[in-house]
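Severity: low
Component: inverse-folding endpoint
Summary: output formatting inconsistent between runs
Steps to reproduce: submit the following C-alpha cells with default settings.
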C-alpha cells in the first residue's frame, strides 16, 4: 500500500511539473527540461558503467552545448537546421574523439565515441526540440501539452487493460509483462480520446482526423520507444534506469516514449501545418 501511495504521489508531482512548465512560459520550459536533460545524461552515463563503458566527464560539455544551441536560440529554422545538422554531428564526433585521445587510461575508444554520440542523438536532441513547439505553430505550447496527454493516456490504458485482461505477451524476449491486449486497448482508447481533442483544444484548429493521426503516430512510436529502452536495460542487466523518481524508476524510464516519439511528431506536424 505504501509503495502504491508513493508511486501515485510521485506521478502526480511529475505530471504537475510537466504541465506547469508547458503552460507557464518558454523560460521555465527551457530550464525544467535542461534539468531533466542533465539528469537523463547522468543516468545514461551510469547505466553504461554497468558494461564498463566509462564516458569522460567532459561528455556533458558538448551535450549541453547542443541543448543550449538548439533550445535557447532561434537558430531552429528548417532550411538552416538541415544545413547545420551534419556539421554539428561532425563537431560532436571530433570533440569526443579528442576526449578519447587524451584520456589518461587507454579504453575502448570507438565504443566510448559511439556511446557519446548516441547520448546526444537519443536524449539531448529530443529534449531540446521540445522547446520549439511554440515556434512550430500558433499555440504550439498547447500542441506540446496534447502530445504529453496522448502519451500518458496510452501508457495508462495500456497498463490498466494489460493488468486486467492481458494474456498474450507483445514482445516476450524484451518485455514479457507488456501484452497485446494492453497495447491494443491503450491504442484504441487513445485514438478515441483524440477524436474529442477539437473540443479540448479549440484554439488549435485541428480537426478530429488530424488529432487521431497524431495519436496514431504517438502510440506507434511511443510503444516502440518503450520496447527499445527495455531492450537496452535488459542488455545492461538493470530493471530501472535510475532511482530518482520513487516508485517509477529513473528519468529515462518516464521519458522513453516521448524521446522516441518527438522526432516523428515534429515530422507529422510539419506535414499537416
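Observed output (run 2 of 3):
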Amino acid at each position: 500500500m505504501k509503495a502504491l501511495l508513493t508511486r501515485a504521489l510521485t506521478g502526480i508531482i511529475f505530471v504537475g511539473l510537466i504541465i506547469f512548465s508547458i503552460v507557464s512560459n518558454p523560460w521555465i520550459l527551457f530550464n525544467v527540461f535542461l534539468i531533466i536533460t542533465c539528469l537523463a545524461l547522468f543516468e545514461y552515463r551510469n547505466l553504461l558503467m554497468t558494461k564498463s563503458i566509462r564516458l569522460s566527464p567532459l561528455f556533458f560539455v558538448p551535450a549541453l552545448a547542443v541543448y543550449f544551441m538548439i533550445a535557447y536560440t532561434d537558430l531552429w529554422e528548417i532550411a538552416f537546421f538541415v544545413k547545420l545538422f551534419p556539421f554539428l554531428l561532425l563537431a560532436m564526433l571530433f570533440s569526443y574523439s579528442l576526449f578519447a585521445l587524451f584520456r589518461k587510461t587507454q579504453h575502448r575508444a570507438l565504443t566510448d565515441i559511439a556511446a557519446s554520440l548516441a547520448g546526444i542523438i537519443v536524449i539531448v536532441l529530443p529534449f531540446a526540440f521540445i522547446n520549439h513547439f511554440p515556434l512550430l505553430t500558433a499555440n504550439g505550447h498547447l500542441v506540446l501539452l496534447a502530445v504529453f496527454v496522448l502519451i500518458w493516456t496510452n501508457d495508462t490504458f495500456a497498463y490498466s487493460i494489460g493488468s486486467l485482461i492481458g494474456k498474450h505477451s507483445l514482445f516476450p524476449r524484451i518485455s514479457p509483462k507488456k501484452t497485446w491486449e494492453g497495447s491494443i486497448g491503450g491504442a484504441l482508447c487513445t485514438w478515441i480520446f483524440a477524436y474529442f481533442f477539437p473540443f479540448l483544444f479549440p484554439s488549435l484548429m485541428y480537426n478530429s482526423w488530424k488529432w487521431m493521426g497524431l495519436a496514431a503516430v504517438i502510440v506507434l512510436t511511443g510503444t516502440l520507444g518503450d520496447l527499445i529502452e527495455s531492450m537496452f536495460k535488459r542488455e545492461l542487466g538493470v530493471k530501472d534506469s535510475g532511482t530518482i523518481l520513487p516508485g517509477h524508476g529513473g528519468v529515462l524510464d518516464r521519458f522513453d516514449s516521448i524521446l522516441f516519439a518527438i522526432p516523428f511528431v515534429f515530422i507529422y506536424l510539419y506535414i499537416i501545418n
